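Q: what sequence does this backbone want?
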C-alpha cells in the first residue's frame, strides 16, 4: 500500500496551488449563494408569519358567529 502511494505522481506545488485556490474560490461562492438563498427564504417566512398574525388578530377582534348563523353575512341588494 505504501509503495502505491509513493509511486503515484504528485502535482508540483506551483501547479497544485492554482487548483487549491480555485477550489477555495468555488467553495466560498457556493457558501455565499447558499446563505443568500437561506436569507431570502427566512425573509419570506417572516412576512408570511406576520400576515398570519394579522389575520389571527383580525379574527379575534370579530365576534364568533352562533351555531345557526352563517359565517359571512351577505347583504341583499335593495330593489
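A:
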Amino acid at each position: 500500500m505504501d509503495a502505491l502511494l509513493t509511486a503515484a505522481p504528485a502535482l508540483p506545488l506551483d501547479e497544485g496551488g492554482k487548483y487549491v485556490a480555485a477550489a477555495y474560490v468555488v467553495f466560498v461562492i457556493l457558501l455565499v449563494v447558499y446563505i443568500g438563498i437561506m436569507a431570502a427564504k427566512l425573509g419570506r417566512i417572516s412576512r408570511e408569519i406576520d400576515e398570519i398574525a394579522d389575520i389571527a388578530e383580525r379574527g379575534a377582534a370579530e365576534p364568533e358567529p352562533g351555531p345557526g348563523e352563517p359565517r359571512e353575512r351577505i347583504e341583499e341588494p335593495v330593489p
